[in-house]
Amino acid sequence: MGQVVLAQNKKIEIRKKSYDFGNVDNWDSPPARFTIKNNGTQSLTFLPTFQHLEVLVEFPKKPIPPNGSGEVRIYYYTGDKGAFSHKIPVYSNFDGKPFHLTIKGNILSIANSALMACPGSVPEPDNSVNAHKHNIVVIDKETMHAIENATVRILDSNGNEDKVTAKLNGMAIIQAPTGRYVIQAEHPGYHPNERLTMLTKDKKRIVIELERIQTERPKEEPKEVLTAKKTKRTPPSTRTNTSQNTRTNTTQTQSKYKPRTTKTEPSQKPVDYADVYAKRKEERAKAREKEQDRLTERAAAKARREQVKGEQRAVAEAKKREERAMANKAAQQQREKEQAQREREQAQREIEQAQRAAQETKETNEVVRTKETNAVVPPPNSSNTLSKSDYQANNIVFLIDVSQSMEDNDKLDLMKNAMKRLTNVLRDIDKITVIVYSTKSEVILPSISSDNKEAVYQAIQSLEAEGSTRGIKGLEMAYHWINTNFIYNGNNQIILATDGEFKDTNADMKAVYSLVRQQMRKGILLSVVGFGQDSDAVKLMRKLAYSGKGRYINIQDEGDAEGVLIEEIKANSKKF
Fold it and tell me: How does pLDDT run across 18-35, given as a tens digit for each residue?
C-alpha cells in the first residue's frame, strides 16, 4: 500500500499526491488516478478548478460522504514529445486554500488518437439533445481582416466530419451539440490552421487565424545600356544629306538605347514554423499564468472575507463575555448585599440573646443584688431628678477602663458609685449600655431601658480590674453600639472612664481623633472621666473630650465623684 498523506485540511486524506507515468511510447492521454478519502463529518465536494490548456481534471460526479472515498482523474492532452510536469491546484468546500496534485512523465512518441479526444475526461457530442448555433470566423493573422470563402471543417471525437464555407465577413455558421471538436480552416494563399476547442451552449464565437503564404519572386537581370557611337565627319558636300540621316539615327538610337532601371524586390526569408509555434506556446503560457493569478486573487478574496467574518465573530464573543462579566458583577453585588443583611440580622440576634441572658441573671440573683445595691446607692434626691418635660431622652454608653491600674486607690469603686448615682435618677425613656476594655473589649450590658435598674446595678457591680489598657478597640465598639441605638432629638453620649493612655499595638492616635470628630458631627458626644495626674494621660484625655465636644472630668476622691455625672448629663440633655 502506498504512503498515505494528508492535505492541508486534515479532513482530506490522499493516498498519494504525485503520479509519475515514466517513459511512455504511443502516448494516448492515459488518466492519472488519485484516491481521496473524506475524514470529515460532512460531504466533500470539489470546487471548479482552473486547468491548463493541456490538462483536464475529472472529479467524482457525486459528493464524497463522510468516511467515504472517491477518485480524481487527471488527463494530460498534448501533441508534444519530451518530459513534462504539471502541478494542479484543487479546491474543496472544506478549506479556502487548495491542495495540489502533480503529474509528470516522459513522452517518447505520440499515438494517432492522442489529438482526437481525452478518454473519459471530456463528454462526447450528445446528438440526442438539441444542437447549438456557433459562429466560426476566419481572419488574416497579419491584417486581422475577414477571409471570405474559406473552407471550414469540423471533426468530432468520433472522427465525424462536417464541411462549411465562410462567406460574408469570413463567418461560417454551424449547428453542433456540446462536446470537444477539432476545427480546421484553409484558403488558397494561406497556411491551413486547426484549433481544438470545447463547444458549449454559451460559446457562440470561435476565431481561427490563417497566416498568408509568402512566395519569393525571381530576380530580374538588368538590361545592358547601349551608348551612341561617334560618327565620322562627312565632307561638306554630303553634310546636308547626312545631317538628316544623322538626326534620324540619333533619335532612334536615343529612343532605342535609353537606359532603364528595373526595380527588384528583396528576397524574403522562408517562414520558421518552429518559431511561430514557440511564440504561440508562449502566449498560451501567459494566458495560463494570467488565469492562475485570477484564481489566486479570487481565493485570496475569499480568505479575506473569511477573516472579516472571523473578526466579527470575535467581536461578538467579546461583547458576550463583557455582558456575562457585568451580569456576574451584579450578581456578586447582590450576594454581598444579602450577606450584609444577614450580618445585621445576626448582630440583632446577638443583642437579643445578650438581653435575655441579662434578664435571666437578674432573676437568679435578684435577692443578693438588692442587698448589695441598697448598701451603696443613696436614696433618690428630688433636686437631681430629670424631668421629662425639661430634659431630652438620653442614650448613654459607659466605656470603662478595667485594666489592672484601675484597682489602685479605689479608682474603679469611685466610678461604680458615680455610675450608680446617675442610674438612680435616669428615667424609663433613657437607655444605658456598659462596655469594658482592658486586654480585650467586651459588652457587659447591651442597651436597655434605665427603669431596669437592678440589671444595671448588677452589671456595674460585676466590674473587676485586670489586664492592660487597650482602649481603641473599646472606643470603636462604643461608637458602634451608640449608633445602633441612636435617639433622634435626644442626647447621645459616651462616657469614657480611664486613668491612663491607650496601649494598643500600632495605635494611630490621629486616626482616633479623626473618628471622634467624625462622630461628633453626627451628634454623638464624648466626655472623659479621668483618674490620676499623669501629664501625658491628662493631655490625651483632654484632647479626646475636646474632639468629642464633651467635658474632661477629673475625680480624685468620693466627693468629686458624687453628682458629677448627673450634672454632665443634665447639661447635655436640657431642652431649650
Answer: 999 999 988 888 899 999
The highest-confidence range among 76-85, 109-118, 224-233, 366-375, by mean pLDDT, is 76-85
DSSP 259: -
Q: Of 549, 461, 540, whose CA–CA distance to 498 is shortest?
A: 540
- What are the beta bridge partners of residue 443? 435
E strand residue ranges, 5-112: 5-6, 12-14, 18-24, 31-38, 55-58, 69-76, 82-92, 95-107
Q: Measure CA 71 to chain center.
A: 39
Contact 526, 430 (CB under 8 A): no
With H, G, I as helix, E, B as strand and everything else as coil, classify residue 96: strand
- Residues 6 or more apart whose CB falls under 8 angstroms from that of 408 comprise none
For the whole prediction, is pTM greater than 0.70? no
**CA–CA dist 492, 487 (Å, integer):** 7
pLDDT digits (tens, 9 = 90+) for 23-75: 998 888 889 999 999 988 889 888 766 556 678 888 888 899 999 999 999 98
Helix, strand, coil percentages in the chain from 3-state DSSP, rounded to 5: 40, 30, 35
Contact 138, 192 (CB under 8 A): no
First CA to last CA distance, the chain: 112
398 grid coordinates: 459607659
Given a contact cutoff of 8 angstroms between Cβ atoms, the answer to whether 430 and 396 are in contact is yes
Q: Which residues are bridge partners to 434 per DSSP?
A: 398, 445
Identify the pLDDT of residue 225: 44
Q: Choose among 152, 120, 127, 126: nearest CA to 139.
A: 152
Residues 6+ apart with CB under 8 A from 60: 46, 70, 71, 72
Which residues have C-beta within 8 Å of that of residue 239, sequence separation ≥ 6? none
* Cα torsion 289, 293, 296, 302: sign: negative
Would you say 494 and 461 are in contact if contact means Cβ atoms under 8 Å apart?
no
- Cα torsion angle, 341, 343, 345, 348, sign: negative
Alpha-carbon distances, residue 472 vs 265, 350, 533 (angstroms): 128, 22, 21
Q: 193 phi and psi, to 5 degrees?
A: -145, 155
Q: In angstroms, rounded to a whole number, what is the distance separating the alpha carbons of residues 461 and 484? A: 25
